[in-house]
Design a protein that fits this description.
Length: about 130
């Protein structure tokens, strides 16, 4: 993820946590705060409860990559903090991307993707 899209200061992360709104999934909490800035910035928080440095860095790399792929679809002017929790270390980057996309949709920061209707098993009935 580009440097300009990262929240670097702990004060900024704290402000998003305190003043922003939060949405949660089983392995991730997403907090967002409108800033009016020309770019949306992201921060990733992984506590020591998740494991050692190797595990925490792997989690951060996966979350950063998933956020990088979704960043163009998020409107500018937000600070977003993602907080890892639960069994997140066992999730793939694709699964994390789907989780983040779902949380962004719940936060109304990403349009809902149209899906094809699911056909009933056994084909159409007449």
């Amino acid at each position: 993820m580009e440097r300009r899209r990262r929240i670097g200061r702990a004060d900024d992360i704290r402000r998003v946590r305190q003043q922003g709104r939060c949405w949660s999934a089983d392995v991730l909490v997403l907090c967002a705060l409108a800033t009016g800035a020309p770019v949306t910035r992201f921060a990733i928080v992984v506590s020591k409860r998740q494991g050692g440095a190797v595990v925490r860095n792997r989690i951060k790399r996966r979350l950063r990559e998933a956020a990088r792929q979704l960043a163009p679809s998020v409107p500018p002017g937000y600070d977003i903090v993602m907080i890892a929790r639960g069994p997140i270390a066992s999730r793939t980057t694709t699964e994390l991307g789907l989780t983040i996309a779902g949380l962004l949709q719940r936060a109304r920061l990403r349009p809902i993707e149209p899906t094809a209707p699911v056909a009933a098993p056994g084909g159409p009935t007449a």
